[in-house]
Design brief:
This protein is 58% helix and 12% strand. The chain has 361 residues and is an alpha+beta fold. Helix 3 packs antiparallel against helix 4 (174-203), helix 5 packs parallel to helix 6 (248-264) and helix 6 (248-264) runs antiparallel to helix 8 (324-334). It binds adenosine-5'-diphosphate and magnesium ion (MG). Residues 261-262, 265, 290, 292, 303, 308-310, 320-326, 348-349 line the site of adenosine-5'-diphosphate. Its main location: membrane.
Amino acid sequence: MSRALGLSVRAKLTLSYAGFLMLAGVLLLGVVWAFLLRYVPNHPMIGPGPMIPNRGDLVRAFAPKVSLMLLFLLAFGLLGGWVLAGRMLAPLARITTATRKAAVGSLSHRIDLEGRNDEFRELADSFDAMLARLEAHVAEQQRFAANASHELRTPLAITQTLLDVARNDPDHDTTELVDRLHYVNTRAIDLTEALLLLSRADRRSFTREPVDLSLLAEEATETLLPLAERRGVTIETAGDASPTIGSYALLLQMTTNLVHNAIVHNLPDGGAVWVGTAADASGVLLIVENTGGRLAPELVSTLAEPFQRGTQRTHTGHAGVGLGLAIVRSIAEAHDGTLALAARPEGGLRVTVRLPAVPRT
Ligand SMILES: Nc1ncnc2c1ncn2[C@@H]1O[C@H](COP(=O)(O)OP(=O)(O)O)[C@@H](O)[C@H]1O
Ligand SMILES: [Mg+2]
């Protein structure tokens, strides 16, 4: 963007310092002059007694000195103003340097302004904080892209191997090959769909409508009941109506992911899942709790990160793509809500999603 060249802030400050100094000088002289005038007559006094100077004499005597003094004030104001403004504005130069560096992509630079807390210090500190957040965000995105590429390459590499084997061995059982290719392809589609869903939730571009979490919980449970029965898991649903505002499809996906996790990451047999909803003045809650193996708290805090799959990777038919909880968190945050994970002391997980309540109109 090109802008017309203007006076620098330093020059403006200098001029205003000098200007104020001159104004103060002139005002002071004016007061002194007015004071003198009261005692000096306008015309020469005629009569006996000593000669008293009249106004003309006074002007002639003082005018050169007054102009000299005003000139000195001007020079002093300009010089002092220039030095003072330079000192005041020094932090600004450092902030500008940091902004320029950030603009060309160097996010690791910090201003680190020292000194007392003033407006510049506040600006510099918040700028540093913004840089730190941006740097972390960019690093996270890069990590995510690298992980996603890696995950997407895996099914393609497996497909390639299967095809190579089939080509080198003409008597290969094609039915088995097709089955395995189909399985690998399904996983690739699942992964791609999960990635698309994640970016859709992150973009926050969805229409919002009134949604009742308790109905979502019922619907998700009903859909997943056959899976639960196959795995010998019982599901209990309970809770009050919990109205909120959001995307029905995304919130259903969120609930389904949670109930699905609660079923598949459960005890091998005889596990239990509890799905509950609640509403209070501050918001609505969806709580999904399940039995299962003991989970270390430090592991639990990482589970919602993309592609985190806990420690023991299950090679059963339901090896997920590791995006389930990342999607849940994204959807919750896109609805101005939060996701909280807690290991149950007796084993298993308790997941709590808090969403804003419907504002009463
Ligand atoms: N309800 C749960 N109970 C126990 N562990 C869970 C539960 N939900 C998720 N996890 C753990 O968190 C990991 C990440 O979950 P998720 O993001 O849904 O990925 P995925 O289910 O595809 O592995 C899972 O691999 C599992 O180890
Ligand atoms: Mg999952």
